[in-house]
Predict the structure.
Amino acid sequence: MTFSRTLLLVSLAGLVGLAAGCGPRSDASRTDGAAGRIKLGFLVKQAEEPWFQYEWKGADRAAAQYGFELLKMGVPDGEKTLAAIDSLAANGAAGFVICTPDVRLGPAIVAKAKAAGMKVIAVDDRLVGADGRFLEEVPYLGMSATKIGQLSGATLATEMKRRGWAAADTAACIVTFEELDTARERTDGIIAALKAAGFPADRIYKAPQKTTDIPGSFDAANALLAQKTGVKHWLVAGMNDTATLGAVRATEGNGFKAPDVIGVGINGTDCLDELRKPAPTGFFGSIYASAPTEGFRTAEMLYLWVKEGKMPPLDTRVDGQLITRETFEQVLKAEGIL
Ligand code: FCA
């Protein structure tokens, strides 16, 4: 819009405001203050997970800095996702960041967004097409999944060595969710690092979780623990904190004491209550990646894309670092999470 047209509209709006001055505030004057304010959505699959709440916090920070309106929505399933996109369109949103509940919704999400002229950025879980390949044209920001997985596996191996456990008495329970690429890359990374550290491949067991919550990982690990008798010590890991927490709970239920379990999570946001427990549990630590940074950066990228036509990079990765009971407070304070 040209400057003079904007000026004209502003003065017209002023006249309407004046005309309505004596009566109740008109709709025109109510929206006037927000006129020109860009609206952006931020849709996440598991709003109950602290990871996503911290992502939203980061996105809120971007909204405050750049002065756009952020519409945050939880989208636990496909139906709610498509309905949320419709509602964004009806609200005049210019685009949205999404961590979809199912990556195969990719083509439907993109088609709906295109039809409404909205821009899309995928965060955490990369959209895939009908052929199972990534929708590479949709800008994506997520974890360096393989690297972060490797760090988790290397942490397990180092701590096992420090505790002096014999490989013959030890086994690894890796909770998997292989239908999701970022999850599979992480757990493959864990397994690769364990093997690289000399841990016997035939003592590494996968426990596939049906749902990506604590009950899902608890059930998966429980089924495995029931089958594998004669193990004295367990190494436990998975694609995120929730996966590891459920498996640690399963070791407890099967009679393993905290000193005989080393659990390492990923995210570093969903294990804070666990790390704060007065007595150590089998949950040793987590590979922390910055959810607020991911939320901030994706929201910022989307805003600059809408506002200035600045196309975001198509693939951006975020690294992680180990946090433990000893270090988490210091690291997370520096991150502004605590
Ligand atoms: C996936 C997981 C989340 C988080 C995110 C980065 O979406 O479900 O817990 O690890 O990747």
Notes: Residues 145-289 form a domain with the Rossmann fold fold (CATH 3.40.50.2300). Confidence is low (pLDDT under 50) at residues 1-33.
